[in-house]
Amino acid sequence: MDFAEKFFKGNRLKEGDVIIGLNTGSGKVFANKNLRPQKTVKLIKLLAKGIKAKILLLGGPLEKEMNAYILKNAGPGVINAGCGNSLKEFSALINRCSLVITADTLGLHIAVALKKPVVTLFGPTSHQEIELYNRGKKIISGLSCAPCYKNKCGKTVTCMDKVSLKGIAGAAKDLIADRVKR
What's the rounded Cα separation, in Å, for the pair 32 and 28? Predict the structure, then answer.
């Protein structure tokens, strides 16, 4: 039994379950590439209202505190995948997801390579440089300075603060509906 299979079995996730992988990771290169923890909690609650799915919280070592906050505040139905998975384990978890929501990060590139439906959030990086191969939707910041490619942002309201949670949830719902039709 491989890592993802053990993980899914241990967390009572079954073959027919709709699993949304929510990647909170973003690395250290660009400022504010991910949603703030409070906004992520709001997104999870919005997703719970519109989609019957289980949320698999993904991230790396830098997201340990953030994911702990999200788990504490998001309510039931969120499963922690941990923040210490190897690249192979992280990829295996993404491969078992029905859909992945992620910023422009490694999680995005893995999801695209694995041909997973993906909702991708763009703030400090350019959406025009990324191809989703008709397997996803891009949610783009409405802030005029985005993309900036800065590794530090001095603004009180960041580009990711201007990413629409309703847009993310709507795109996820559309992509899940497309998946169920197949």
Answer: 9
């998946």: which residue's tokens?
A: 179
Q: Which two tokens stand for residue 136?
A: 């996803």
Give the pTM.
0.93
Its domain, for residue 163, covers 3-9+16-181
Please state the domain count of the chain.
Answer: 1
Nearest 10 degrees: Cα torsion 36, 42, 44, 45: 170
Tens-place pLDDT, residues 44-101: 999 998 788 999 999 999 899 999 999 999 988 899 999 999 999 999 999 999 999 9
Q: Which amino acid is at 62?
A: L
Q: At 36, which CATH number? A: 3.40.50.2000
Task: Give the integer Cα–Cα distance in Å for 66 and 80.
Answer: 12
CA distances from 126 to 12, 105, 130, 135, 139 (A): 38, 12, 8, 18, 11
DSSP secondary structure string for all residues of 126-162: -GGG---TTSEEEEE---TT-----S----SS-GGGG
| DSSP 8-state code for residue 103 | E
